[in-house]
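Issue 218. Parser rejects a valid record. Input:
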Amino acid sequence: MNYFIFCVVFIFGLTIGSFINCLIYRLYIGKSFLRGRSFCPKCKHGLAWHDNIPLLSFFMLNGRCRYCRRAISMQYPAVELITAILFTAIFVLEVERCGGIAMDLMLFNCSFAQLLKLLRNWVFTFFLIIIFVYDLRYYLILDKVTVPAMMVALVFNLTLADDMTVSIFWLLAAGSVAGGFFLIQFLVSKGKWIGGGDIYLGFLMGFMLGWPQILIALFVSYIVGSVVGIGLILSKRKTIKSEVPFGTFLSVGTFVTLMRGDWIIEKYLNLL
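Output the parser choked on:
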């Protein structure tokens, strides 16, 4: 039974990953994701249901469109697989937080708050993957993604809060610290260091994580960004003046903190 639940969650993640791919492309071309069937981005031919099976269709078609035979971007299977892995990892982590009970008993033994937290983390991860991929591919963080995500983050976290008055203060404080941090950089550099989308993403990070976890997320983001940046410069794929999609690193830092922020803070305090 455990393996069955595990597979269901994994397949659910693959399906969400497929939807994320569709959403990213339609956001890019300005087309609604609520209408119209899926189609090949290159030849625009409508896709049959068996061409749209998450992950499997890519391998069944040998990575090429059935109709125009042009290569399908590796983004599609990669996003589907990564989303499935992350969703499954989140599920397993929440099982552990429920006392390590069997997966098939989780839905019955966990409290409503624990199940809501699982849903919250899935939804937050959904938004973070969109931001990560879109910024990595198009060097842009869309306000039409971050602004709705802010509202969703506040609703989830305030619903889970023990004291709503105290929680909304710390959520707004965390958002203001991160958003203000990027706003100062934007003003000082006149938009050369970061874009306006990073400011909105800073607020979103704060609303998702609260205080003091937002500090951990910023620290992790800059560490990851520095390591990757130095690696790209040393490999001569980028120069010191090259534009970097920093939203991708902020997304990683936010996800890491969402999953293990309390553990990181605990380990840090033990070192003091």
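Fixed in the parser; the record now loads. The first helix runs from residue 2 to 29.
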